[in-house]
Amino acid sequence: MKKIISLFLVALMAFGCVSVFASCDSGKDENVLTMATNAEFPPYEFKEGDGYAGIDVEIAQAIAKRLGKELKIVDIEFGSIIGGVQTGKYDFGMAGLTVTDERKESVNFSQTYATGVQVIIVKKDSAIQSLDDIFDFNEEGDPVALKNIDIKVGVQQDTTGDIYCSDDVTKWGFNTCDAEGVVKIDRITRYPSGADAVEGLKSGKVDMVVIDNEPAKSFVAANEGAVRILEGDNEYAVEDYAICVSKSNTQLLKDINEALTALKSEGVIDKIIAKYINAGETEGEGEATE
Asked: I need a surface site. Which of 40, 86, 167, 276 has the fewest CB within 10 A?
């Protein structure tokens, strides 16, 4: 009884730019690739000293190196990444981005490079132990109602967790919507970062937080004894991460896909992911990311 979402990569053809690697902005340095991210999503991207670290950061660095380019990272609001890439302000976006139909209307996506799982964080002493304590299900295993209609859910604004949770209960969301999908009862509290959402949980402003599994581990480790992740077969959603590129820059999309294919075959991406995720599991503490 969980929401499984298979998100496949689509590379849509559009007219290319004059420059091979730069965006359509002719004023940009062709030797620099600008990556838009939100460094609040551990272990995929996070601030480290005066710079950035994480899975996405190291994969982006490996891609840039393979393309013979210098990587420039710009830390912005998560909700501004798609728009910034779409307009050519940034060459590509990488921030634990899930491919959705809505996002594909604005940008193209590379092949998948990692898989994420949306999970639920609750207070340590919460009575919620599983999805059965949240939803009433029909015989097919689909939700039909909430156990507690007054429940409040925290999410990071504009993430897929926000998108999923904002849907109707019968579609695995937490809101009550009419036949046209218009929200009648909004039970979602949106925060600028996952860390802020967890603080909202700790202070009692929300009853749970829905967020990606790896960042969830980091937040739980940072708040040891205060919050926990629902264990067992309680994944809220499964999704694939990819890199977004402007529809007008098909050459860059091709170059990124070729680089990802090579990095996968060489085992580089697996090593980068294992470095952050396995290290966190072994030491009992996570890194900081978007």
From this structure: 167
